[in-house]
Amino acid sequence: MSLGRTCVCTRPMDALMQIGAVPHRVGTDFLPVLTEKLDPGYLDFIKRMKAMLDPNGIMNAFSWR
Prior knowledge:
Layout: H1 2-18, H2 31-37, H3 40-53
């Protein structure tokens, strides 16, 4: 059932990203959708910033991998 819920819930995110918006605080359910649609350079920037600000990986563990 989760797959159906996730698919329906991603439609608004898809629409926002098509007009150039980057959703904020999307949660781990939407992270795979968000990361596949983001520009690779931007995603790399986010990962480098997280590594710099959280070198031990304790904040939001398992996200932005």
